[in-house]
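Postdoc handover notes: sequence design on the structure in folder B. Input tokens:
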């Protein structure tokens, strides 16, 4: 009886491990292909002239050789097929296209699919098939082994446990590969952000140089523009490195009034264009200890979100107050507010509810606050949203401010 129960437990567990292996392998392959296609699309955006070998996805078939269990791949963009490597006998049926989202297994092939956005205007559908004949054969072998184990007892049972342990090790390897593919997908998103941010400065520099080459005249205004755009690219590079290495700040005394004045001058024109009333309170006479560039960058992100959440005719309030050993900047809007189920994830990297964007804005704000020894929080508000960002007052012993208003 104990032997029968052991065999049944082994078979059930073995089948569950097989199913997890298949799911992990399919998901890992999807992440790998999504990251490669995203990087490819962003590369095309940066190239002034696309080489012939990059005009389609034929190059991807070579990389698929690194996925030995991958039977075929279909890549579509807005209903147009860009790549199809499925052999005729394994071409997915209409049923597969309808049921592949949760994974479907037909004739020793595991089909899985996903939709993703490489750029705000580039939407792709990806479907792949993974060969699961090995897993099915392994399961059939287990049944045979179990039958002999039942007949000859413990000897063959040890062999079954050996195969189970080997498969468990393979599952751990697949989990490691899945983690690596998720990191690759994140790198693809960062690559998309970089391409989006540097496109405009690069265009300005290229057009300016082209004008100088054609006219042969040294236009001082144009040269100044080129220098400014090059400076923007240098600054962006430094900020991106900060994401990877951690923020490097240069602490100095900063008048709170200076920060408020600079942000008011920057956002008042936007408020006029958008038909939003921008109310800025006079800040207290207090100095904070921080890096002015990063402090302003963090507050810009909060203010930008407030303006985007507020409709025409609404109001955005920007005020400053001293709370103990901290100077706190408060931004309140009259938008629809933030649902409770989203609040816990607001400051996570790559989390966003916007159709465009990369989910790094509020994550940046949080990192800036933490690096300065301050704090950022979403406060309770009767209407709209209220963000509070606090920095330590100059040369004073710091303790975290309360999260209440």
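Designed sequence:
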């Amino acid at each position: 009886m104990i032997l029968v129960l052991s065999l049944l437990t082994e078979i059930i567990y073995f089948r569950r491990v097989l199913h997890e292996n298949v799911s992990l392998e399919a998901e890992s392959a999807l992440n790998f292909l999504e990251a490669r296609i995203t990087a490819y699309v962003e590369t095309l955006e940066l190239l002034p002239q696309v080489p012939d070998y990059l005009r389609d996805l034929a190059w991807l078939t070579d990389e698929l050789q690194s996925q030995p269990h991958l039977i075929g791949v279909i890549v579509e963009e807005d209903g147009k097929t860009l790549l199809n490597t499925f052999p005729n006998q394994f071409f997915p049926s209409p049923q597969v296209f309808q049921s592949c989202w949760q994974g479907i297994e037909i004739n020793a092939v595991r089909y899985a699919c996903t939709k993703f956005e490489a750029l705000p205007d580039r939407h792709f559908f990806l479907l792949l098939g993974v060969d699961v004949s090995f897993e099915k054969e392994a399961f059939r072998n287990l049944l045979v082994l179990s039958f002999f184990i039942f007949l000859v007892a413990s000897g063959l049972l040890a062999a079954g446990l050996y195969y189970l342990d080997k498969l468990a090790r393979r599952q751990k390897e697949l989990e490691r590969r899945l983690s690596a593919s998720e990191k690759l997908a994140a790198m693809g998103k960062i690559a998309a952000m970089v391409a989006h941010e540097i496109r405009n400065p690069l265009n300005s520099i290229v057009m300016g140089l082209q004008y100088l080459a054609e006219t042969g005249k040294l236009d001082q205004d144009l040269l100044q523009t080129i220098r400014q755009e090059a400076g923007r690219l240098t600054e962006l590079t430094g900020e991106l490195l900060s994401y990877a290495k951690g923020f490097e700040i240069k602490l100095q005394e900063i008048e709170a009034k200076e920060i408020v004045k600079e942000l008011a001058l920057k956002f008042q024109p936007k408020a006029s264009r958008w038909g939003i009333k921008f109310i800025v309170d006079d800040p207290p006479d207090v100095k904070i200890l921080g890096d002015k560039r990063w402090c302003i960058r963090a507050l810009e992100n909060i203010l930008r979100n407030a303006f985007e959440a507020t409709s025409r005719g609404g109001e955005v309030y920007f005020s400053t107050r001293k709370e103990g050993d901290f100077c706190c900047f408060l931004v309140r809007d009259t938008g629809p507010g933030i649902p409770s189920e989203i609040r816990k994830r607001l400051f996570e990297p790559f989390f966003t509810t916007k159709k465009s964007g990369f989910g790094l804005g509020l994550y940046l704000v949080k990192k800036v606050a933490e690096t300065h020894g301050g704090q950022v929080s979403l406060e309770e508000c009767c209407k709209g949203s209220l963000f509070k960002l606090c920095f330590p007052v100059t040369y004073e012993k710091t303790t975290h401010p309360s999260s209440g208003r």
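Context for whoever picks this up: The chain has three domains: 2-191, 193-245, 252-392. Don't rerun without checking with the PI first.
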